[in-house]
What we know:
The structure holds 4 protein chains of 4 kinds. By secondary structure, chain A is α+β, with helices and mostly antiparallel strands. The longest helix of chain A is centred in the middle third of the chain and has 18 residues, at 464-481. The relative contact order of chain A is 0.07. Chain B contains 1 helix and 6 strands; from the N terminus they run βββαβββ. In chain B, strands 3-4-5-6 form a 4-stranded antiparallel β-sheet, with no helix packed on it. A two-stranded antiparallel ribbon of chain B has the order 1-2. In chain B, a hairpin with a 7-residue loop joins strand 4 and strand 5. By secondary structure, chain C is an alpha+beta fold. Chain C is built from 4 helices and 12 strands. A 7-stranded mixed β-sheet of chain C has the order 1-12-2-8-11-10-9. In chain C, strands 4-5-6-3-7 form a 5-stranded antiparallel β-sheet, covered by helices on one side. Chain C starts with 16 loop residues before the first strand and ends with a strand. Chains in contact: A-B, A-C, A-D, B-C, B-D. At the A-D interface, strand 6, helix 3, helix 10, helix 11 and strand 31 of A face helix 1, helix 3, helix 5, helix 7 and helix 9 of D. Strand 31 (586-587) of chain A pairs antiparallel with strand 16 (329-341) of chain D, so a sheet runs across the interface. The complex binds flavin-adenine dinucleotide, nicotinamide-adenine-dinucleotide (NAD), flavin mononucleotide (FMN) and zinc ion.
Amino acid sequence: MRDESTRPLGQPGRLAQGGEIARSRPLRGRFDGRAIEGFAGDTLASALLANGLRLVARSFKYHRPRGILTAGSEEPNALVELRAGSRREPNSKATVTEFYDGLEARSQNHWPSLRFDLLAANAWLSPMLGAGFYYKTFMWPPSFWERVYEPLIRRAAGLGRAAGASDPDAYEHANAFCDVLVIGSGPSGLAAALAAARAGARVIVCEEDFRLGGRLLADAREINGMPGELWTARAIEELRALPEVHLFPRTTVFGVYDGGTYGALERLCDHMPVPTPHEPRQRLWRIVAKHAVLAAGAIERPMVFAGNDRPGVMLASALRTYAKRFAVVCGRRVALFVNNDDGWRTAADLARCGIAVSAVIDSRREVAPHVSALADKARIFTGAAVIEANGGSALRSITVRSNAGTETISADALGISGGWNPNLHLACHQGARPVWDERIAAFVPGAPPPGMRVVGAANGSMSLGACLREGAQAGYDAAEQCGFHPKAASAAADDEPCAVDAFWHVDLSAKAFIDFQNDVTGADVALAEREGFRSVEHLKRYTTLGMATDQGKIGSMHGLATLATLMGRSIPHAGITTFRPPYTPVAIGAFAGPHRGKHFRPARLTPSHRWAQEQGTVFVETGAWLRAQYFPQNREDDWLTTVKREVLTVRSAVGFCDVSTLGKIEMHGPDAAAFLDRLYINTFSTLAIGRARYGVMLREDGFVLDDGTCSRLAPNRFFMTTTTANAERVFAHMQFCHQVLWPELDVQFVSATDQWAQFSVAGPRARDLLAKLVAPFDLSNAAFPYMAACELMVAGDIPGRLYRLSFSGELAYEIAVPARYGDALARLLMQAGEAFGIAPYGTEALGAMRIEKGHVGGQEIDGRTTARDLGFGRMMSGKKDFIGRVMAARPALLETDRRVFVGFKPVNAQDRISAGAHLVPPGVPASAAHDQGVITSVAFSPSLQHWIGLGLLARGRERLGARVTAADPVRERFVEVEICAPCFIDPEGARLHA
Amino acid sequence: MRIACPHCGARDMREFTYLGDATVARPDPSAPGALDRFTDYVYFRDNPAGAHREFWYHAFGCQAWLVVTRDTRTHDILSVESRAAK
Amino acid sequence: MPELVARSGLEQLVVPGRVGASTDAPGVTIALVQDRALAAVLARKNRAADLASAVHRALGIDLPVEPRVVTGEALSFVWAGPARWLAMAERVSGEALLRELRAEFADLCSVIDQSDARILVRVSGPRARNVLVKGILIDLHPRAFAVGDAAMTNIGHVRAHFWQTGATPTYEIAVPRSYAADFWHWLIESAAAYGVLIEAK
Amino acid sequence: MRYSALALAWNAATGNRSWKPLWRDPDPRESYDVLIIGGGAHGLATAYYLAREHGLRNVAVLEKNWIGSGNAGRNTTIIRSNYLLDGNIPFYEFSLKLWEKQEQELNYNTMVSQRGVLNVYHSDVQRDVFARRGNAMRLHGVDAQLLDREEVRALLPYVDFDDARFPVHGALLQKRGGTVRHDAVVWGYARGADRLGVDIVQNCEVTGIRMAHGRVMGVETTRGAIRAEKVALSVAGSSSRLAAMAGMRLPIESHVLQAFVSEGIKPLVDNVITFGAGHFYISQSDKGGLVFGGDIDGYNSYAQRGNLAALEDVCEGGMALMPMLGRLRIVRSWGGVVDMSMDGSPTIDRTPVGGLYLNAGWCYGGFKATPAAGWCFAHLIARDAPHQLAAAYRLDRFASGRLVDERGAGAQPNLH
Ligand SMILES: Cc1cc2nc3c(=O)[nH]c(=O)nc-3n(C[C@H](O)[C@H](O)[C@H](O)COP(=O)(O)OP(=O)(O)OC[C@H]3O[C@@H](n4cnc5c(N)ncnc54)[C@H](O)[C@@H]3O)c2cc1C
Ligand SMILES: NC(=O)c1ccc[n+]([C@@H]2O[C@H](COP(=O)([O-])OP(=O)(O)OC[C@H]3O[C@@H](n4cnc5c(N)ncnc54)[C@H](O)[C@@H]3O)[C@@H](O)[C@H]2O)c1
Ligand SMILES: Cc1cc2nc3c(=O)[nH]c(=O)nc-3n(C[C@H](O)[C@H](O)[C@H](O)COP(=O)(O)O)c2cc1C
Ligand SMILES: [Zn+2]
C-alpha cells in the first residue's frame, strides 16, 4: 500500500504544452497520503485533475461522491482539510489552494475512507431525510435530545475537522486609502485601473486569485488584435510601473462597509507550508476608497438534473480554465450541456488544446449558426437535456433526452453551463436589492453603494468588448471625479455572442442537486414549497439552500427560480436572498489581527512596574492595568500570609503602594471651582487652597458614578482623581458637561493619569520616612494636616506633589513625582524606609485596608447604588444644582427599605465570609423571598484576626448589632454574621490625624 | 462608518464613542415639574428611522463632542457640528 | 539624599541595534525621543485668537489652527484639539517649560505639564509608512499627509498623537506612557519584516 | 398532521406528497378581537398563548415581511436564566421551564438543547460578582454552579489558560441553559397558533395606528385597514417607530447587533461560552457552524447590518479566549435591529392609549424570553392586567426609579 501511495501518478491529465504553469518548477504534495505532482502555478484542484484524481470529497448529508465542479472560489464540492496539526484548515477549497511543495491535504466527511464511505447509506434514506426532517422527529423521549439524538446529528453534520489547537501563525491589520479601488483584475478591472491610473489617480487593484487577468487567463480571446494573455501581461506591466498603483494579488475584497470602507484579505503566506519569518500568514486590509469599481466578473451556473453532482460533471468555464490556464484535461470524452452561447465556446477553446468535444446538448430549440459552428466536430442536440449523469464515483455516461428520444452517450466529462450570474455580492452588502435582467436571465446590481461602479460581467455586460468599454469608462469617471484628467481608453475587442435562455431544471428529483454543498435537491425545494415555506428566505432557512461555505454562489439562483416556478410567480417577484459579508470565508484570526494572546488588550504598566517585577511581585489584571497584587517574601507560601504581613506593616510601621493608576485630571481656569460644584454632589468652591476633599459624582439618573478626591493647588487650579476603572468614562462625562451643558464656563482640563507616578505612603512612620524625601518641607500636623495638598520638591529638586490622604486609615500621604522618576522613587522609598521596616504593598492589602476602613469601592459603586445607599446622603448639597440631583429624588431612590452600606463580621470569628453571599435573616431558608442584601467585599483583617465584610443590606443602618446569615450556596458556605458600622479600625480617625 | 470631525477630518468610527439622541436638552433643574422633565430627558428618546441628530465623542481624536446628523437606515452622515469651543 | 534617576520604563525593550529581517539597510529606524519637555496649552475661553497673537509676538510663529505642527526656534506647537496645543521644547525640563509658558501667556491659557504623560518615538526610513499603516487609519500618502501634518488617533487600542517631521518619511509618535510597552511591541512586530534599526538615543 | 418518526416514514413511502403548509396564508379580515403587530417569536408565542390559555382565537398576527424576518430569525439562540436581579430571575426561569416542555407541547422539534452556559471569569473580584449572581439564582431555586479553573479546564480544554492577557480563573455555569433552533421556534409557534385559528398575515406592514378618545381602534396596513379593540405591539427593533404612530416616545434606542457563523465543522464546542473580559460568546450549531457574537456596534441603526469595527472586536475576544479559532473561517455575518432599553430590561405593559399594549425593550436577549414573554403578554392583553412574573417590567419604572438594571450601566443603552 505504502508503495502505491508514494508512486507518482505521472500527471496523466496534463497536456504536453501550454498553461500558465512553470514546468521548470515541479512540486510534490500529498492528498489522502498519496503523492501528487504539479507545477508552480497549479492549484490543488488542477494538480488533482492532472494526477487523474477525480473523486475528492463526500457530500454533507448523503455522503455522495464529489469531484471538482469549478475553478474558482465558488467551489461547493472540492473542500479538503489542508495542512496538519495545529495548522489544519478544514473546508479549504482545492480550487483556490495554490499548490506548493510539501502540500498536505485530506478529503473529509467520510468513514472509513473517501472511496468506501459507509455513511453513503444515508442516500438510501434520503426520502426520510428531506428538508427539515429533524423538526418532525427526535422528540421522544424528551431527555434523549441532549444525550442521543443531538450528539448523533452533530457528529454527522459539519464537514472538516478543526485543528482544535492554538493557531501558531500571526495575522496583521493594515489600512490603505486610494482614489479608486478596483475589485477584480479581469478585462473590466484592468481597463478601469488603466484609465484611472494613467490619469494619475491612486489606484488599488485587488484580485483574489494569485494571478491577475480573470477570465483572460482561461478563455482564448483577443484584445487589440493580440492574444488576451499578452494584453493582460502588458496591462499589468504598465500598471506596475506607475507609482500610484498598487496591485494586490491573493487579495479578496470580502466586505463593503460604511463610508467607502472596504475589507480585504491578503493571503501572504498561504501558498507555502509555513509563513516566512517575520511575515504574517494573512493581512486584513481596511481600504478607504473614494471610488470603487466592482469588476468581479460573473459566476457560471450549473444545470439541475439527476446526478449532476457526479465527479466529472463540471462547469463548462472550469473545463476551459483547466485546459488553457493549467494545461489540464478533465476528460477524454467531453460533452457539454448548456443553455447559452458562451458554453459553446468551450468546444472551440478545448479544441485549441487538442481536446475534442463529442456532444453539445443545448436546452434551447434554436442556436445561431455562428454559435453552433464553435462545435463543428460535435454531435449537436438542441431543445434537449441531459436527464441523468451516470456512473459511480466518476462520470461514465450521460443520458440525453431530445426530440429524437432518449440516448446514452459515453462521457467522462460533462461541461455544464446554465448561464452566468453577475457576481454582484459586494454591490449588495449595503442593502441594495438586485434587479432582474431578463436579457441575461440573471440578477444584476441595483443601486450600488455610494462611490461604487459595477462594470463588466459583474454588471451583466457579458461580452469582452463591453467589459473593456465599461471598465475604462468607470475608471475614467472615477478619476475625473477625483480631479484628474483622464484620457479616453484604447482597448477593444469583439462583442462575442452571449445569448441565453433561462433554464432552471430538468427535473426536481432527490438526485438533482441545487445546492451541492448542503445537499439541497430539487425535491427539497418542492417539499419546502408544499409546506408553506414560500418566501425565498423561508426556503433558504428550511432547506439550508445557499447557507454553505459557498453561500449559494453556485445553487441559490436555481433554488429561487425553482420556487418561483412552483408558485407560478415571476423570479423578481419571488426575490432573492440577502448577500452578506464576507464574499468568501475569512479566518477569524485575520479579523483579530495582532490583538491576541497577551496583546489582546494593551496592558498598562505603572511607573514602578519594572521595580516590582524585580521584587518577584505577583501581578493582577485590573481593567486595562497590570498592578502589583502582593509582594511575597521568602517562605511565604500563600497569598494570605503575604497580605497579612503587608497590612500589619502598614498598621505598625510604614508601607507604600503604587497608586498611579487612579484617573488624574488637572483642571484650570477661572470657573474651575464652579464646574466642580456642578459635577460633584458636594461643594468645591469653598475648598481652601492647599486642601483636598473627597467627592462623589452621580450620573444624571441619580445613581453614583464615581468617587475620588480633588485638591486645590491654586485659586484656579485643581487636581482631581477618579477611580482607576472609571477614569475614561468620567473624563468623557466631564467633557460632555463642559462642551454641551455649560460651555459658558471658562475651565480647561486634561488627563494627567500618565504624567504622575503616585505612591501612597502609609503607616505610623510615614511622616518620618517622607521627611527624608521632602526635606526641608515641614510635615508637622500643624503645617500639613490631614487633607492638606501642596506642590513641593522631592529628593531635592524634582518637582512633585504631596497630598495627605489616607485610604488605609493610617497616617498617610500620597506623594507624586513625574512618571519618569516613579521607578527611582520606589527604590528610594525602599531604601529610605528600611530603617522604619518598610514594605511595599499591593492591591490585596490596599483592598483589605479599605475594607477595614469601610471605604466604598467598585463593588459597592455598581451603578445601582445611590449616594444615600452608600452613606453619602449628607454630602449632597442642597444649595446648588449638580448632575444627578433631580433624578436622585425619585421615589424609589428615597425609599427607606433600600439596601444600604454596612459592615459585617462573623459571629464565629473562625468563619470565613465570602463576597457574593446573599443576606437572609437567621433561621429562615436561604430563598429569594428572604433575600435582604448581599456582601460585596470581604477581607481578612490581620488586626482583628478575622474576616470582615462590607455589603448592602435592607435597612442595614437601623440594624447594627443584629445578625443575618451570609448565604453562599454556590460555594456551600453559610455563615452567621453581625451587622456593624462599615468601619473596623480606628473609627474616630485618630491614626490618620496623627 | 467615517465621521468628518470638523476639527480632525474624516475618521473611522472606532475613534468615537456614542451617546445617542442630541435633540434633548437638559431641563432647568429648578423649574417646576423638573422631575418629570428630567425623566423625559434622561430616558425617553427620539429613535427615528431616518435622519437622527446624535452625540458622538471624538474620544481618540480631539475629544470634541460632536452633533452628527445621520440616517439610521443607511448610516449616511448628513452633517457634523462640534460643540467644542474653538 | 540620592538623586532620582529618570527612566522611560522601556529600558528592557529598547535595545539599540538591528532586529527583524536581516535586510541590507534597515527599512525602518526607530528611536526613543527623550529630553523633550511637553506641555498642554489650552486657551482660556474665547482667548484662542489672543493667545495666537501673543505667541506670534513672543515667538514669531503661528499657532496651528488645524492638525499641524509648527516649529519655532526654541518651541514647537502641535495642534492638539480645538484651542489646544502641545508645546514642545528640547533639552529643558517640563518644569522650566511650564514656567516659561505660564510667564509669557498667563491669562490667555492654562498650561499643564505633560512631559511624563507620553513616550515619544521617532519612526523613520523608507518603510516607515508601511509600518504605520498597520495601525493608523489615516491616509499617510504624501498627497494627504505631509511634513508638518499632525493627527490624534488610535493605533490599535492605544491613543496616539503623531506628526510628520521629515520627508524620508519621519514621524514622531506620542503615546501615553503606561501604554508604551504594548505600543513598542506592536511597533517592532509591525516593522520586523522590513528590517529594523533601533537607535541609541 | 402530527409529526413523528412514523409520519416521516409514511410520507417517505408515499413520495412526500401529503405534507401540508405549517400555517395558512390568509388575507387579513376586516376586524379581529386582537391584533398582534410583529410576526417574530414573541408575537407568534403571544398569539399561541392567547388562543391556548385564554381562548382568544379571533386573533391576527401582522408581519411586515415574512415571519421570523426580524431578530427571531437572526439571533444566536442562547437560552438561560442566569440573571442577578429579583425582577428578572423568576421571569426567565419560567421561560426556561416553558422551553423544557415546548417541543412536546408544540409537537415540533425546536431542538431545545440544554448544553450548559458558561460565563468565564478572570479575577477574584469577577468571581465574586458571578458568585453573587449564582447565589441569587440559587435563592430563586435556579441551578447555578461556580467552577474553578480546573473544572473549566476539564470542560473547555482549548481555552487559553496560559498565554492570555486575562487568564481564565473559573466560570459560572448554568447547566440548564443552552440553545434552541431559532427558526424552528418561529415555525413551531406559527403552526401551533395557526391550528388554534390565529391568522398569520405576512407581507402586511402596519403603517398607522387608529385611535379615538384615547383608545385604539385598529391599524392601517399595506394591505388595508384592520379594526380591533386590542392592538399589541411586539415589533422588537421597530418598537419606537410603532409607538410613534401612537404618539409615544419610548425609553428605547434601536441598535445594530451583529452575529457571525463559521464554516461547518465537526463537533468542537459543546457548550455556550461567554467571555468575561471582552465581548465574545460562542456556541456550535447542530449543523456544525460556530455561531458567535459580541457587543452591539454602538450606534442607532435600522440598517440590519453593522461595521468592521464590531466584527474585529468580537474576533479579538474569540482569539483571546480560544486561540484555536484562528484558522476557522467566518462564512457569514449579519445584523439585527435590537431594541436597547434604558436600563437594559424589557417592558411588558399597558400604554397610555387604551387597548394598546407594549412588549419591547428586549435588547440583545429576548429570544430566551420568548415563551414567557408570549405567556405574560397574552395574559396582559387578555386580562388587561400585568402578569405577576412581569411585574418589574412596567413603563412607569423610569419615573419612579424602580429600574431593572442588571449591568448598572445607567441610562445609556449602548452600555447595557
Ligand atoms: C444578532 C442577535 C443575536 C441575538 N442573540 C440572542 C441570544 O443569543 N439569546 C437571546 O435570548 N436573545 C438574543 N437576541 C435578541 C432576540 O433575538 C430578540 O430580543 C427577540 O428575537 C425579539 O423578539 P421577537 O422575536 O419577537 O422579535 P422580531 O423577530 O424582531 O419580531 C418583530 C417583528 O415585527 C415586525 N415588524 C416590525 N415593524 C412592523 C410593522 N410596522 N408592521 C408589521 N410588522 C412589523 C418585524 O418584521 C419582525 O418580524 C439576539 C438578537 C440579535 C439581533
Ligand atoms: N459571453 C458570456 O456569456 C460571458 C459570460 C461571463 C463572462 N464572460 C467573459 O468573462 C470576462 C469578464 O470580464 P470581467 O473583467 O468582468 O470579469 P473576470 O471574470 O474576467 O474577472 C473578475 C475577476 O475578479 C476577481 N474577483 C471576484 N471577486 C473578487 C473579490 N471579492 N475580491 C477580489 N477579486 C475578486 C476574480 O478572481 C476574477 O479574476 C470577459 O472576458 C467576458 O467576455 C463572457
Ligand atoms: C443560529 C444561526 C445560525 C446560522 N447559520 C448559518 C449558516 O450555517 N450558514 C449561513 O449562510 N447562514 C447562517 N446564518 C445566518 C443567516 O443566513 C442569515 O444571515 C441570518 O438569519 C440573518 O438574515 P439575513 O442575512 O437574511 O438578513 C445563521 C443564523 C443564525 C441565527
Ligand atoms: Zn476630532
